[in-house]
Design brief:
7 strands; 10 helices; binds zinc ion; binds 5'-O-[(R)-(carboxyoxy)(hydroxy)phosphoryl]adenosine; alpha/beta; two-stranded parallel sheet; 335 residues
């Protein structure tokens, strides 16, 4: 058992998608079917547990790619049914909140949750586990999706988030170590962020990253025509990253100010971005406490799903044997 109470955790990453510049749904589903059995066995061996030690089964039921989700849901149903165990379908993004809580004692409600992944960007207030108020979210692209698309435009490989971060770090190093590098050079916009936003306006918390992506594409096109894009990629990446961090950090700061909730729990793959964690901490200052997951638990993993399932199973919740995968599963417990 590690220091976070995780006894065994197996993670398989699918490299096959990189060649296509994004996730290919059918490949994802087939890879799940191929590897699930061995993954469970691996995790159980690491945990030194036997089938008889398992008391419940949690599985991601949505949102996401239905084919991949169905592979997991069907495996979980078959296992739970055969062993006579309770089954619980978990919402992927609620799982990310529990992922951070696994590592931090302080990451418990009440808190402001900022969830940033490849498919979703959500800002919420957690009043208790399972009781949430949605403050805002993206109106178009998710934060991670924006990183991935911008990386692609700049000719960087998939997944783009880590590549953008690395390029921005090169920009910073070239600028003599300034934290934000040459960010600001291209004056990229901060969509839906204005000092005139008022609490109560949907725009106060909502976000949009599609316009930022388009603005960057326009700058990239101009640079390309001048034959100057290759030399500007690092600075452009730094500029883009800074714009995203600016928007996310300010919306989060507003949530802390308006709710009086000091704790901020960050979750999702984009939480791996060190400039985002830094920018959030800077913006919150002494008015907030930031809890961010380590890379292992920021990226999609089964420990966070197990933690969410354990909470819901303990309070008596069960999913029916008819549990289905849902591409657009609604966030649970929204007031
Ligand atoms: O939560 P996650 O592992 O999978 C989904 O639920 O989508 O998040 C994946 C996303 C991808 O868009 C990836 O580019 C992004 O997280 N990501 C990052 C970084 N590492 C991963 N984005 C920015 N900076 C990073 N260092
Ligand atoms: Zn995720």
């Amino acid at each position: 058992m590690d220091e976070h109470g995780i006894r065994g955790l197996a993670i398989a990453s699918q490299d096959a998608h990189a060649a296509f510049g994004g996730v290919v749904p059918e490949i994802a589903a087939r890879e799940h079917i191929r590897s699930l059995d061995a993954m469970v066995r691996h995790a159980m061996r690491e945990a030194e547990v036997d089938h008889a030690d398992i008391s419940g089964v949690g599985v991601t039921a949505g949102p996401g790619l239905v084919g991949a989700l169905l592979a997991g849901v069907n495996w979980a149903k078959a296992y739970a049914f055969a062993r006579g165990l309770p089954l619980l379908g978990v919402h992927h993004m609620e799982g990310h909140l529990f992922g951070t809580a696994l590592e931090h004692e302080g990451a418990h409600p009440p808190f402001i949750g900022l969830l940033v992944s490849g498919g979703h960007t959500l800002l919420l207030e957690a009043r208790a586990w399972g009781r949430y108020r949605l403050l805002g979210g993206t109106r178009d692209d998710a934060a991670g999706e924006a990183f991935d698309k911008v990386a692609r435009r700049l000719g960087l490989p998939y997944p783009g988030g880590p590549q953008i971060q690395r390029a921005a770090e090169r920009s910073a190093a070239a600028a003599g170590g300034a934290a934000v590098g040459a960010a600001g050079r291209f004056r990229l916009p901060r969509p839906m962020l204005s000092r005139r936003d008022l609490p109560g306006d949907p725009a106060y918390y909502d976000m949009s990253f599609s316009g930022l992506k388009t603005a960057l594409a326009r700058v990239a096109e101009q640079l390309e025509e001048e034959g100057a894009l290759a030399d500007a990629v690092d600075d452009l990446a730094a500029d883009f990253q800074e714009a995203v961090v600016d928007v996310l950090a300010e919306k989060t700061r507003r949530a802390v100010e308006q709710t009086g909730c000091r704790r901020v729990v960050l979750g999702g793959g984009v939480a791996r971005n060190s400039r985002l964690r830094e920018g959030l901490a800077e913006r919150l200052g002494s008015s907030g406490e930031l809890y961010a997951p380590s890379p292992r638990l920021a990226t999609d993993n089964a420990a966070m799903i197990a933690a969410a399932a354990r909470f819901r199973l303990a309070r008596g919740e069960r999913s029916p044997w008819s549990l289905n995968a849902e591409a657009a599963l609604a966030f649970p417990g929204l007031a």
